[in-house]
Design a protein that fits this description.
about 625 residues; alpha/beta; Rossmann fold; 7-stranded mixed β-sheet; 5-stranded parallel β-sheet; globular
């Protein structure tokens, strides 16, 4: 479907927007919205948040002198219109693809991205840092931070506002209030914003100070975030105001505004698959293999039916972690604490002290934000908090900011912590059951994103012996010790090696901590080469094995080949592309093994039927 975009066609950079007549801005906003929808039909992605801030984006670049004026987008899911208007329109349909635009703001991508984002609640801290640096250098540019009502629930945003309120540096904070983050916004601050929206009096006439005013901010709003005239008027007044007081502008918007779908969606099409722009039908996956997230949630529900002590906690990701399903069955036993991972962990620790069995389900990349609490409030006190770590390993199009690369390192480093990683659906069910039964201290299990868990068996509840792995394939030349979801790639590598006359033993480690010392020592003593495969960074499972072998004086008994994620941040692309780049696909594993044995890979194609049959 061809679109006419005569005004957008004239925009190469924001300076071109500033040359427009103000009367053309609404037309430009319509053309930007149409262009984003067109691009999303081809690429999919996080376009719901961007559709909600089209008018705001146009108005900001019209009023302020970007990039000299710093514009920071919190999380930056909503930055698609910003990218479109800052010289990246030609590449918009490459967004989140390998070699294409990043799905979030990125300093190295554009001078109009002064701060990289993807995790939430950072924009006010970064903006205040820029504002104070500006003042120290005697400059006069503006700093604007755009933060959503969900992200402003994060503790870091409160810390930044607490500092900004007394610092005396001018900072403009725009609170984009659409009642959503990914799921509906939760918490007392969200309720306060709703109260402000329902108050018919103007802010100046309101005798009761808003939350922001009590922290030392000037407070403007709420105002309609889709009214271009009001936006331009308000922002122009702020631009011309010489005050050094920080200011909050409360903006009310609709997430996903203008999306073409007739069917309502509770999450306003936060992120979508590609779709047909004519029929509006979404592209459907070719397979229906259950996801690890589904396996975790369904397993937890079954155990919770028998054990009233089981509770579930998430940090604003109920659907992403599968806990929305748990809440549907046990609404009083699931707690969404908002974008507050630190609180989530210590909240779980508090429940554990009272004999509950808390399952804290947080993405690997977001659990990093609560690591001090994992150390101090959970591990140090040896409290039986269960950590369900979703999105472990590489996550595809969300890229390096969302990759679960480090949890094996940071969790396995802790005394008292048990760390597991399933190789398939059945193993995950066993690990959930094991975590339910384990009361001796904290326990974690990490699993990847995507529909790749393999054949499921909902009746499986076999408990695992802590720290014990298993042999899944017997050989005698090379031993591959796999931890986690690279098992299929290891099977494929084993069959390829067999074609070269190399006999392979394949072990499923199951536990990153404690390691199965007996199994590892036996494999080292009985094989020429021992390969360790993990979808985590250097310093994790392989390092623990090498440390153990060193203390046992066994490092010289076999050639040890650790295959981990490289010591670099891996760019966005499909998961298959990322694992290939990391050398963690089957061909990469084979190449490393052949090189370690001083042989050249012949390049013969893999024959995967037998490998798949064995896995089944």
């Amino acid at each position: 479907m061809d679109m006419l975009t005569p005004i957008l066609d004239r925009i190469v950079e924001p300076a071109d927007i500033r040359r427009l007549d103000e009367r053309d801005l609404e037309r430009l906003a319509r053309e930007v919205r149409d262009e984003i929808i067109s691009a999303a039909s081809q690429t999919g992605g996080h376009f719901g948040a961007g559709l909600g801030v089209v008018e705001l984006t146009v108005a900001l670049h019209y009023v302020f002198n970007t990039p000299a004026d710093r514009l920071i987008w919190d999380v930056s899911h909503q930055a698609y219109p910003h990218k479109l208007l800052t010289g990246r329109r030609h590449a918009l349909r490459s967004i989140r693809k390998r070699g294409g635009l990043y799905g979030f703001t990125k300093r190295s991508e554009s001078e109009y991205d002064p701060f990289g984002a993807a995790h939430s609640s950072t924009s006010i801290s970064a903006g205040l840092g820029m504002a104070v640096a500006r003042d120290l250098k005697g400059k006069r540019n503006h700093v604007i931070a755009v933060i959503g009502d969900g992200a402003i629930s994060g503790g870091m945003a409160y810390e930044a506002m607490n500092h900004a309120g007394v610092q005396g540096s001018r900072l403009i904070v725009i609170v984009n209030d659409n009642g959503m983050s990914i799921a509906p916004a939760v918490g007392a601050l969200s309720r306060h914003l709703n109260e402000l929206k329902s108050d018919t009096r103007s802010n100046k006439d309101n005798k009761n100070s808003s939350f922001f005013e009590t922290l030392g901010f000037e407070h403007i709003g709420p105002i309609d975030g889709h009214d271009m005239s009001e936006l331009v008027h308000t922002l122009t007044a702020l631009r011309n105001d010489p005050s050094t007081t920080p200011v909050v502008v409360h903006l009310v918007t609709e997430k996903g505004k203008g999306h073409p779908f007739k069917k309502p969606d509770a999450e306003k099409y936060h992120a979508v698959n590609p779709f047909d722009p004519e029929t509006l039908e979404f592209s459907k996956p070719t397979t229906k293999v259950p996801s690890y997230t589904h396996i975790f949630a369904s397993s937890l529900i079954e155990h919770a039916k028998k054990d009233e002590k089981i509770v579930a906690i998430t940090a604003s990701m109920p659907s992403g972690t599968g806990l929305d399903k748990f809440a549907g069955v046990f609404p009083n036993r699931m707690f969404d604490v908002g974008i507050a991972e630190q609180h989530a962990v210590t909240f779980a620790a508090g429940m554990a002290t009272e004999g509950m069995k808390p399952f804290c389900a947080i993405y690997s990349t977001f659990l990093q934000r609560g690591y001090d609490q994992v150390v101090h409030d959970v591990a140090l006190q040896n409290l039986p908090v269960r950590f369900a770590i979703d999105r472990a390993g590489l996550v595809g199009q969300d890229g390096a900011t969302h990759a679960g690369s480090f949890d094996l390192c940071y969790m396995s480093a802790l005394p008292n912590m048990v760390v597991m990683a399933p190789s398939d659906a059945v193993e995950l069910r066993r690990m959930v059951a094991t975590a339910v039964a384990y009361d001796d201290g904290p326990i974690a299990f990490r699993y990847p994103r995507g529909d790749s868990a393999g054949t499921d068996d909902p009746s499986e509840q076999h408990l695992l012996e802590i720290g014990k792995g298993r042999i899944v394939l017997e050989g005698h030349d090379v031993a591959i010790i796999n931890l986690g979801a690279r098992m299929v790639a290891c099977f494929e590598a084993a069959f390829q090696l067999e074609q070269h006359g190399i006999s392979v033993t394949l072990a499923d480690a199951r536990f990153a901590k404690p390691i199965d010392a007996d199994l590892i020592e036996r494999l080292v003593k009985s094989h020429e080469t021992v390969v360790i495969v993990e979808e985590g960074s250097i310093g994790g499972f392989s390092s623990h094995i090498l440390h153990h072998l060193a203390t046992c004086n066994l490092l010289g008994r076999a050639k040890i080949v650790p295959i981990t994620l490289p010591d670099s941040f891996i760019a966005h692309g499909s998961p298959a592309e990322q694992y290939k780049d990391a050398g963690l696909d089957s061909m990469g594993i084979v190449a490393r093994i052949m090189a370690s044995r001083g042989k050249q890979e012949a390049g013969r194609p893999l024959h995967l039927k037998s490998a798949s049959a064995t896995m089944a």
